[in-house]
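Every protein is a chain of amino acids, and every chain bends into a shape of its own. The protein below has been through that process, and both of its lines are reproduced in full.
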Amino acid sequence: MVATTFTLCAVFVPVAFMDGIPGQFFKPFAFTATIAVLFSLLVARMLTPMMASKYMKPYHEEEKPGRFMLWYLDKVQWALSHRKTTMAAVTLVMAGTFFIASTLPTGLRPPPDNGFFNINATLPPGSRLEDTRAVADAVRERLKDNKRHHPHLGHRQHPQCQHRHSARHKKNRDKQQQQPQREFLSQIRDIPGARPRPEAAPPAAAACRSRSLATI
């Protein structure tokens, strides 16, 4: 019981000191879980034995193992008598577990895929408005020949220009939104003075967009 409690504390306490946005989400949960587990240990080791000694009365009754207990003891006996087979099975299960865990996403949330995203090209601080316009025109010129995506809204905000792209709903296409984002970035990454980056469009913008202009 004590070992289990401190094992849970060792898992949850580091979560309470995570940085960034994940830390803001998990910090209250980590503190709550740690304090709850510690108080559970306190009750189990002090309050429960005291109340049991005061209110429970001794009785003598022969305990007969039930059907599930007999089945469990039979399996334990088999595992102890076939140790090599048991160790091989446990090793195989652990290897499969680690393999499955390696395929799981590691981010706080999956990347958005609403068929609507922005390409932002930011210029260095102190850039002239003419430079921003030139970069915006260069981005538009390079992306206009793409047959699958076409920008339907663009605006210049010094020192940043933004191009918004739309596609069909993800149920009607076979590619994720991140794939055309990488394609677009590879086309405009070498524009002098520009620092392009993708950005998921907010839900409000996606809701008020016009009809889809292209497919992935």
Notes: DSSP finds seven helices and four strands in the chain. Helices lie at 2-15, 20-55, 67-81, 83-102, 129-143, 178-188, 203-207. Residues 1-54 form one domain. Confidence is low (pLDDT under 50) at residues 152-156, 203-216.
